[in-house]
Known about the structure:
Blueprint: H1 2-23, H2 34-52, H3 62-101, E1 108-110, E2 115-117, H4 119-134, H5 137-151, H6 161-202, H7 208-252
Antiparallel strand pairs: 1-2
Helix pairs in contact: 1-2, 1-3, 3-4, 3-6, 3-7, 4-7, 5-7, 6-7
Amino acid sequence: MVDYNLWLVFLLAVTRITAFIAVAPLFSNRSVPAWSKIGIGLFLGAVVTPFAGNPQLLQVDALTFALLLVEEALVGLALGAVANIIFHGIMIGGQLMDVSMGFAMSNLFDPTSEVQSTLIGRFLNLVAMMMLLAMDGHHSMILALSSSFELVPAAGVNLNSLVTREVVSIFTGMFLLAFKLAAPILAVIFVSEISLGLVARTVPQLNVFILGFPLKIGLGVLVLALIFPIMAVVFGNILSQMERDLITVIGSFR
Length: 254
């Protein structure tokens, strides 16, 4: 009976882990083969099973166990979404820059996500991904996922309103992050638009519409180059915040 219950704990652990891998940054990338994701999920599940939950307490029927699987999947999806939300915020910030500079019309097809992405948005997202690897962020995500079984063991998930509040708060921070990243370029482009408007009133013969395109692109690229060293430091702080957000969300499931 103990061995049978231990297998049930293993299935619950694998469900949480594979749900996390399905949406977490890096792991959910379409360039990663499906069999590799499954292998990682099974391996991590086997590693955490000894401390993932007490098999003696898992005396449930089939319907209750199915509900427990759903709860574990929700925990994994929530943790993966929280880890990935930072990269969505960076991508949105880059898209705001592209729209203000006039790059919004030049979308690129991203084969990794199979969606259209803008130039600067995709560039900043790739920079953030590389910094995540350089900072061993993938190790931090795995450690946070493993720690989740110590804080919230398998079959011990408590779905409550605190979970919703924490996740909504983090999602709200995504849009604030996007605006903060794009704010310097948005401010410069706004000033250039006002200047072009004054020039158009002063010199009506000048085609301000044609002049505005290269001017906004040039100013945007210049400002991006100037703030990029600062932006790299900001990215590092943001990625460090990701681990704290994961721990916060994990604690809300208790």
